[in-house]
Amino acid sequence: MENKKRVMVEFDFPGMSVKEYDQIWQDLRKAGYEHPKGLIHHAGAPTDKGVKIVDVWESADKFNEFGSALMPVLQKHGVKEPKPSIFPLHYEYNENKKPIM
Asked: What CATH number labels 7-88?
């Protein structure tokens, strides 16, 4: 049975540059993942250690399905398998929508 509760997924990619991050997105787009199924919000930001990613997904299942496309691209760029933190979403605000609780 599919878990349909939205989740927030957080990744840290130590040592990754924004140039590498951009190249990974370019490769995902070329592979047909310009709009990954189930991805609601995505944000990537440089940190003093690398790049931090925060996503909101329709469900943990949708995020895990995307992993089959993401992992080969990360491996191509020499990125070690990330250890995401996954949290059930409690509250979401989008300026174009009403809050979701």
From this structure: 3.30.70.100
